[in-house]
Specification:
The complex is a heterodimer of chains A (172) and B (524).
Chain A lengths: L1 H10 L22 H9 L1 E7 L5 H9 L11 E3 L8 E5 L7 H10 L5 E5 H6 L5 E2 L2 E2 L10 E3 L6 H11 L7
Chain B lengths: L1 H7 L3 H4 L6 E2 L6 E5 L5 H10 L3 E9 L7 E9 L2 E9 L5 E2 L9 H12 L2 E2 L47 E6 L11 E7 L2 E8 L7 H5 L7 H5 L7 H16 L5 H29 L3 H22 L8 E2 L2 E2 L5 H27 L1 H7 L7 H6 L4 H6 L15 H4 L11 H25 L16 E8 L4 E9 L2 E8 L2 H11 L8 H8 L4 H4 L1
The chains are: A alpha/beta (172), B alpha+beta (524).
Chain lengths: 172, 524
C-alpha cells in the first residue's frame, strides 16, 4: 500500500490543458440551442460505437480517458448505454453486419443528440470504402454533426471534434 | 543462410507425410505442397500426431484457371510452415471435416464456405462471417463476384446452442458492448451467477478485406494489410511484406529488418502496457489504469516522434521500412527503455502485493495446457498455458536469430498467468530493444522494388503481441490474386469460450480482457 501511495505522489499530475474546438470538423451547422449546449458543456455523456473499424481508432479513444488528456476532468464521460448518452462517437466504416445495430443504437439515444464520426473510415469509408460488406462512411447510415479525420485521429484531434460538437452558434 | 536452409529440405515431420514439398522463398522456414482431397485427413492426422497444429485454413476460386476450387491449409510443425493446397472439383467443392483433428478448424471451415462456397462435411453448417448482408447461395470471394454487389440487409436469425434445465437462463451481450471495445455478440447460458456455456457470434466487423486485396498492386496491398487489425499493424505489415518479398525475390537490407524488429517490439510493449492497465481497472484497481496508460502515452509519443505515427502504421513496407531511425533516435529509445523498466517493476510490485487484485486474478478464467493445445491456441494466451510457442524463434529469422528471444511462459493458464506473461514479455522486449539499438547494422532501409513478376506465392509469419500473424499471398503480374491474412484470434476465441466455464458472469470482462482478442482481424 505504501508503494502505491508513493507512486501516486511521485507521479503528480500529468494532465495537459485541453485543445480548442476545431469548427472545421463540422459537417453541419450547430443544431442545438445555446441553453442545451450550456448543459452539455457541464456534463456530456458519450457512447462509443465501433461500427466496423480496424480497432485503431478505439486505441486513441481509450487514450482520451488517460491522465494526459483527462476527459472526465472536462465533465465528459464515456457511458455504457446509448440511453444514457448525449453524443455518439462512431468509428467506421459501417460494416453491413453492424448497420442495424448502429441504427438501433442511434434511435436509443434520447433527443437532443449529437454524432461525431471518427477516423478516415468514419469520415469517408477510408481504405475499406463501400462494398458488399461495407456501407462506407458513418453519414451514409445516421446523421453526423462532426467528422474527425485521421488514421487514427490523435486524442487531441478527437477532443477538438467532441468540443466542436458542443460549441458553435445555432442558425436562427 | 537462405540458400543453406533451402538445401536442407523439408523437416522430417513433413517428409513422413509423403508429399512433394517445395521450399518457399521466405524469411522463415516454409514449404508448399499439393495433395488430393482423398489424402487430406491422413495428412491432417499425421501433422497432429507430430505435435503440429493448424495455423490457418482458407479457400480460393481457381475456376478461371480451369482448376475448380482450392482448399488451403497452413500447418505448422516445429516452426516450419507447410502450405498445403488441396484442389476441389468445381461442380462439387467438398472436403472432409477437420474439426475433430484441429478443434479450431470449425469456424475457419464455416468462413471458407461463406466466402468461397467450398463445403466441409462437418455437422455444424451454420454461417459464420455471413450474417444477412448477402444471400446464402452467393460467395463474395468467387472471382465472378463484384466487390460492389449489393443485397438487401436483414436481421439474422442465428441458431445458438440452447442450454435447458431448472433455473438456466440466457444473457445476450452485444454487438454494441458497454465498454470501448469492438463489436461482437456473446450468448451466456447461466444458472445463478455461474456460466454454464458461452457462445460467441462474431463477424460484425466483416468489411471485405480479402476481396479488397484482389487485383491490388503488391506494394499498395501493404497499406490494407496494416489495417486488418489496427493494434497489430506492425505484425501484419511485416508478415505481408515478408510474403511479397518472398514472392518477388527481393531481400530487404539488414538494417530494415532490425528496424522492423524495433517497431514490432515497441508495438508489443505498447499493447501490453495498455492491457495491464485495463486488467488492473477491471480488477477494481483504477490506479493501475492511470499509471499504465500514462506510461503508454509517453511510449506512443516517442513513436510519433521517431516513426511519424503513434501506432507505427505504414512504417513497414514491402522491400524495407518507410524511414530510418538515426543514432539520436536510437539513444532516445535506449533511455526510454531504461526508464520504463524501472517504472514497470514498481507497478508489478504493486500488482503482486495487492491482495484484492490477486484475488480477482488467481484461478480466474483458467485454460488448461491440454485444452490450449487441443484448440491450437497461440501467442501470449498459449504461453500463459505453458505452451512454448513463439514465431520469433523460427530458425534463420533475422534479426531475432541474432538477438535470441527468451520465450516467456507460465503454467497456470489463468488471468494471473496472462498478466504475468505480459509483465515478463515487457521486460524481454525492453531487453531486445536495447540489443536492437546497440547492434543495428548500418546501411539502406529499403530495397527498390520491381512489382512486376510472373505468377507466384509468398508466405509471411510474424509473432505479433497477441500471437502468430500469418499472411499467404498469391499474385500474377505484380497484382494480388488472393491474399489471406490470418489473425491469432481465430484460434483463441473458441478457447475463451472454455476458459469462462464455471466462472461467474462478472468475471467475464476480466477474463476477456486477459485474452484481449481481435474482432477486426478475425472478421476480415
Amino acid at each position: 500500500m505504501l508503494k502505491l501511495l508513493r507512486q501516486i505522489a511521485l507521479t503528480g499530475i500529468v494532465t495537459e490543458p485541453p485543445p480548442r474546438p476545431d469548427p472545421s470538423m463540422r459537417l453541419v451547422e450547430q443544431r442545438l440551442k445555446s441553453e442545451v449546449l450550456a448543459l452539455f458543456a457541464g456534463s456530456l455523456a458519450i457512447r462509443h460505437v465501433d461500427a466496423g473499424s480496424c480497432n485503431g481508432c478505439e486505441l486513441e479513444i481509450h487514450m482520451l480517458t488517460t491522465p494526459h488528456y483527462n476527459l472526465e476532468g472536462l465533465g465528459i464521460r464515456l457511458v455504457a448505454s446509448p440511453r444514457h448518452a448525449d453524443l455518439l462517437l462512431v468509428t467506421g466504416p459501417v460494416s453491413r453486419n453492424m448497420e442495424t445495430a448502429l441504427r438501433r443504437t442511434y434511435d436509443a439515444v434520447p433527443d437532443p443528440k449529437l454524432v461525431v464520426a471518427v477516423g478516415d473510415c468514419g469520415c469517408t469509408g477510408g481504405v475499406f470504402g463501400e462494398s458488399y460488406a461495407s456501407c462506407g462512411r458513418v453519414a451514409n447510415v445516421i446523421p453526423v454533426d462532426v467528422a474527425v479525420p485521421g488514421c487514427p485521429p490523435t486524442p487531441t484531434a478527437l477532443l477538438q471534434g467532441i468540443l466542436a460538437a458542443i460549441t458553435g452558434r445555432a442558425r436562427g | 543462410m537462405r540458400e543453406k536452409r533451402q538445401s536442407m529440405g523439408p523437416p522430417s515431420a513433413f517428409e513422413s507425410l509423403r508429399l512433394e514439398a517445395a521450399p518457399l522463398r521466405a524469411a522463415v522456414p516454409a514449404w508448399h505442397a499439393r495433395a488430393g482431397v482423398e489424402r487430406l485427413r491422413e495428412i491432417a492426422v499425421g501433422v497432429a500426431a507430430k505435435g503440429g497444429r493448424l495455423a490457418a485454413l482458407w479457400g480460393a476460386d481457381e475456376r478461371d484457371r480451369g482448376e475448380g476450387f482450392a482448399l488451403h491449409l497452413a500447418l505448422v510443425v516445429d516452426d516450419a510452415t507447410l502450405w498445403l493446397a488441396v484442389p476441389l472439383p468445381a461442380e462439387r467443392p467438398e472436403y472432409p471435416d477437420l474439426a475433430d483433428v484441429f478443434a479450431c478448424a470449425n469456424r475457419m471451415q464455416r468462413a471458407a464456405y461463406d466466402l468461397v462456397g467450398i463445403r466441409s462435411t462437418a455437422p455444424d453448417q451454420r454461417p459464420w462471417l455471413r450474417h444477412a448482408a448477402w444471400p446464402p447461395d452467393v460467395y463474395p470471394l468467387r472471382r465472378d463476384f463484384g466487390l460492389d454487389n449489393w443485397y438487401g440487409n436483414d436481421i439474422e436469425q442465428y441458431r445458438f446452442v440452447q442450454v435447458a434445465g431448472d433455473g438456466v437462463h440466457e444473457i445476450p451481450v452485444g454487438p454494441v458492448h458497454a465498454g470501448t471495445i469492438e463489436p461482437g455478440h456473446f450468448r451466456f447460458s447461466i444458472v445463478g451467477e455461474k456460466v454454464l456455456r458461452l457462445e460467441e457470434r462474431l463477424g460484425y466487423t466483416h468489411k471485405a478485406v480479402e476481396k479488397l486485396f484482389e487485383g491490388r498492386d503488391l506494394v499498395a496491398g501493404g497499406m490494407l494489410a496494416g489495417r486488418v487489425s489496427g493494434d497489430s499493424t506492425v505484425a501484419y505489415a511485416w508478415a505481408y511484406a515478408m510474403a511479397v518479398e518472398g514472392l518477388a525475390g527481393v531481400a530487404p537490407p539488414a538494417r530494415a529488418l532490425w528496424l522492423r524488429a524495433l517497431a514490432l517490439e515497441r508495438e508489443r510493449v505498447a499493447n501490453h502496457l495498455g492491457d495491464l492497465g485495463y486488467l488492473g481497472n477491471d480488477g477494481g484497481l483504477a490506479f493501475g489504469l492511470a499509471q499504465f496508460m500514462r506510461l503508454k502515452e509517453e511510449w506512443l509519443r516517442l513513436n510519433g516522434t521517431l516513426f511519424g505515427h503513434r501506432y507505427l502504421m505504414d512504417f513497414v513496407i514491402p522491400g524495407g521500412v518507410e524511414r530510418n531511425v538515426g543514432r539520436h533516435g536510437c539513444d532516445e529509445v535506449a533511455a526510454q527503455c531504461a526508464r520504463l523498466a524501472l517504472e514497470v517493476q514498481t507497478l508489478r510490485d504493486v500488482y503482486d502485493d495487492h491482495a484484492g487484485l490477486q484475488d480477482r486474478f488467481l484461478t480466474c478464467g483458467q485454460l488448461a495446457p491440454e485444452l490450449a493445445r487441443q484448440f491450437g491456441v497461440v501467442g501470449l494466451a498459449a504461453r500463459a498455458s505453458g505452451l512454448t510457442l513463439d514465431a520469433r524463434v523460427a530458425p534463420g529469422f533475422e534479426p531475432y536469430d541474432r538477438l535470441g528471444v527468451a520465450i516467456q511462459t507460465h503454467g497456470a493458464g489463468d488471468v494471473a498467468a496472462r498478466a504475468a506473461v505480459r509483465f515478463d514479455e515487457i521486460f524481454e522486449s525492453l531487453r531486445l530493444l536495447q540489443a536492437i539499438v546497440e547492434g543495428m547494422p548500418l546501411g539502406e532501409v529499403a530495397t527498390p522494388f520491381n512489382t512486376l513478376g510472373g505468377p507466384g506465392r509468398g508466405l509471411g509469419r510474424v509473432e505479433g503481441w497477441r500471437g502468430e500473424v500469418l499472411v499467404a499471398l498469391e499474385a500474377d503480374d505484380g497484382l494480388i490474386r488472393r491474399c489471406h491474412a490470418h489473425d491469432p484470434s481465430w484460434q483463441n476465441w473458441p478457447a475463451l469460450e472454455h476458459a469462462v466455464l464455471g466462472n461467474i458472469v462478472p468475471d467475464f470482462p476480466l477474463i476477456n480482457k486477459s485474452f484481449n482478442l481481435s474482432y477486426s482481424g478475425h472478421d476480415l
